[in-house]
Amino acid sequence: MPTGIVGEFLDLKAETDADILAMQCGDFYEFFADDAELVADELDLTVSQKSSHGSSYPMAGVPLSELTPYVKALVERGYRVAVADQYETEDGHAREITRVVTPGTLLETADDDARYLAAIVREGDDADGPYGLALADVTTGRFLVTEVDDEGDLRAELYRFDPAEVLPGPRVRNDDRLLGAVREDLSGSVSVFDAEAFAPGRAKHAVREQFGRETADSVGIDSELALRAAGAVLGYVEETGAGVLASITRLTAYGDGDHVAVDATTQRNLELTETMRGDADGSLFETVDHTVTAAGGRLLREWITRPRRDREELNRRLDAVEALASAALARDRLRETLGDAYDLERLAARATSGSAGARELLSVRDSLALVPALADAVSGTALADSPVAAVLERIDRERAATLHDELADALAEDPPKTKTQGGLLRVGYDGELDELIARHEKANEWLDRLAEREKRQYGLSHVTVDRNKTDGYYIQVGKSAADGVPEHYREIKTLKNSKRFVTDELEEREREVLRLEEARGELEYELFEELRERVAADAELLQDVGRAVAEIDALASLATHAAGNDWTRPELADERRLDVEAGRHPVVERTTDFVPNDLRLDGERGFLIVTGPNMSGKSTYMRQAALIQLLAQAGSFVPARTATVGLVDGIYTRVGALDELAQGRSTFMVEMQELSNILHSATADSIVILDEVGRGTATYDGISIAWAATEYLHNEVRARTLFATHYHELTTLADHLPRVENVHVAVDKRDGEVTFLRTVRDGPTNRSYGVHVADLAGVPAPVVSRAGTVLDRLREEKAIEAKGGARGGGGERGGFTGTADGDTKQVVFDLSSGSFSESDDAESTAAGAPGSGGGRNGATPGSASDGASGSAGTAETAGAAETAESAETDRFDPETRAVIEELADVDVAETAPVELLSRVQEWQERLDENR
Ligand code: ADP
């Protein structure tokens, strides 16, 4: 065990669970051992070796005054850094840890984004929740507290706020799966904190201490879980951050009733703040963000990620955006003025936490000066009657002016960065200070002139007057002249070429100068502290002004984008509808010659099956619908000629496979979990986007699930839905389900070449373009040609088992033949011989495994267009409810029959999707064994 300084370091390190310790050693902070290596690695410091009792340890250090930027850089990389300071004791000095700087409590950040510290709490071991969640941004003083219903909502909130640090409560911290998922979702780190701090009694006390009993009670945190999370956050900030706790001033308790549910998957799928690849560039936020202040950017981001359901609020924003969009000149002037504003929310937090310096108070002054300028930019323009004016009216302008004037009177124009060097305050601000300064300067002047005087009076050459730490003030005389100094000179030092002297008078003056210097510094610092406290006392005013600046900036940003891109004001409707004329995708339109498309979803037409070849634009069309919905509920204009938007309670999306495999989950399982979540959560007031369902499994499973999900969404959930599928078979559902309609993205096919038209038309695509895509992709001609032939034969002779249900009877429906009288004709394509046989031969099915299928409407999908590709279950079999009892099932062995009967008995509407999935899997296994 090392002793000495390294031993002390290691002892202190053992006391803290921080990742890195910085220990003060005189004028330096030192890192030793592993910490030295790590810091040197991260920050390019030089490592030296420190010998201690025969061993040698790596050591790296930074000067005292330079610690902050190093700590900041380390914390921004996700490390928790403990700082141990040195203090004097009777027998020398000792050291102790004075603070731990963590990602969630870092006050000095240069980054404009909000920086949240989150705590999550749950009661039992049930991952389903509910959860208490608290989020604090110590840089702006914001503190949000809520309870969410389940894990999905929890993750949605976490994803939205992207906290820099998460504190899991006692139950959650052992839930490796949940923590793993949270780590996946977030860029921040997870820290374990004292379980005691999450206890209800202590939490309640902490919240009341922080915000005052009245606020704490009136804000109404009525959930104990939420309260416990809040208490933990406060406890953590108190324990780690010196002085940071004071900055948390704004408590908001929120429920989920006000916001549109947008789960983490959907936020990602719709690329709200980053693209699927993880770039900010190309996200919706980045596209519409023209804000000129950091706070405006933060607010706009929040509007986009947390759309609202409150129509009044949305119309208020829309009124403002409309006014700003048409008043271009006033808008430009406003934005120019806003551009000079500093981040008042953050400055307020720094004033309350005591870390603001004179330059920051100057920034407060300058930002407050903008209040009248903003008012000027609005009055007398078209904005005067708009909600923009109302936003400014919320500011107490008199108070703002008073504080501004006080700061203007007090602060020097160009104060130094440090608070202790003097020069912070203006002459005339304080009589006593001015007098001290005058005397100090006079005394200095006497010293400045001393050398000159001495030269003249005593005929000395080479005389200088200076001061240093050890000698204080002295008169230095060159060697040659040193012998001629007057008697009253007392020699204190001999140097190589000169001698140093003092005199009684000089010593007296020195004492005076030092006294004045100290008095001046102390008084000035005192006055400055008072001034900062004065600003802290008005923190609420600063928050108000900051909030107004942010809001106008965000609104002006939306207006700028709307005006520049020909967006239109959506009409917010009460009915359940989304009616868009010439709509565009807000992001894709920026980089493409975009073809606008209409969209109608309403009571009669609530479910659109979108078909079309790969790359034709299905996905874009559906996302565009979701984004128009979302933008309208963010209070923004939308990319369309006209849009009538019924407000939704949730936007749900499920989009084809990502790199979920990397997360150790099977893609199909993820797909089904997402589907399950949608089927459970969506309501008749939601909008649902499904971009391929069932692709991750065998064709027949896939079709069956897609089919059943469609019925469930249509019949039970009744959400407005857009469903893109490559299962052409699903298009027949439009015949069975009254609110289901087909649309397709048109392509032009001439001379075997496919041209994408990007136009969405009613009705299903009339054929699969897979073979043509194969052709375009350069698959050898003989293969393409043979595939074409096989496809044609499949189409002509393909099996059909649709029975009943079809409106208007049989006929050709997109390659899917039905018969009017409900008879089932069974045709089997034998892969080995390449020939077709009539249904009687079905028992000798080549591939053997019968496809599952079936829905309550009795129509069973036939072979998929890629049926010839050899995917599992290539043979056609019966499977619909009605056929289960028919004599045809006799053709099967008992086990297969049992499966078919069970299948027929399933009530799709009553069975949870996940259960359906596991049953399908079970059937498959039984059939497989039977093969
Ligand atoms: P799909 O989902 O059918 O495979 P996508 O929606 O991914 O097709 O679109 C394929 C490509 O077509 C994308 O690169 C997209 O930018 C472009 N695109 C889609 N819709 C349009 C449109 N309306 N106008 C112009 N380009 C479009």
UniProtKB/TrEMBL annotation:
Keyword Transmembrane helix assigned: no
A GO biological process held by the record: mismatch repair
Extent of Basic and acidic residues compositional bias: 888-897
Keywords assigned: ATP-binding, Coiled coil, DNA damage, DNA repair, DNA-binding, Nucleotide-binding
GO molecular function, one term: damaged DNA binding
InterPro entries: DNA_mismatch_repair_MutS, DNA_mismatch_repair_MutS-lik_N, DNA_mismatch_repair_MutS/MSH, DNA_mismatch_repair_MutS_C, DNA_mismatch_repair_MutS_clamp, DNA_mismatch_repair_MutS_core, DNA_mismatch_repair_MutS_N, DNA_mismatch_repair_MutS_sf
Pfam family, one: MutS_II
Gene3D superfamilies registered for this protein in UniProt: 1.10.1420.10, DNA repair protein MutS, domain I, MutS, connector domain, P-loop containing nucleotide triphosphate hydrolases
Region entry Disordered, spans: 801-897
Stretches assigned to the DNA mismatch repair proteins mutS family domain: 686-702
Ranges of Gly residues composition bias in the record: 805-817
CDD domains: ABC_MutS1
Compositional bias ranges of the Low complexity kind: 858-886
Residues in coiled coil: 492-526
UniProt function note: This protein is involved in the repair of mismatches in DNA. It is possible that it carries out the mismatch recognition step. This protein has a weak ATPase activity.
Family of this protein: Belongs to the DNA mismatch repair MutS family.
HAMAP family according to UniProt: MutS
Protein name per Swiss-Prot or TrEMBL: DNA mismatch repair protein MutS
Organismal lineage: Archaea, Methanobacteriati, Methanobacteriota, Stenosarchaea group, Halobacteria
